[in-house]
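Action item from last week, closing it out:
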Amino acid sequence: MTSIIKRALTRRRQVRGRAAQIEEPDPRLVLGVEFAIVMTLCLSGLEVVHIAFLGTWNSEIFAAITCLTGAIIGLFVGKKA
């Protein structure tokens, strides 16, 4: 999964008359994105378990999922700019 995230965050710049410049992301950024994705998946599973056993929706868990998803999307969009 690291190589997929690293490739997605790698910036390629084309300069006239020169070869493309490739800027690889900081390894800490890649690890942070991996952690955020794993935590989003864990929280999603927690929400499913909460609904299955208690039969109710937990808005706090959903808010955490939304926050982490927004952070991940923001990282990808901000890094490519």
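Closing note: The chain has one domain: 2-80.
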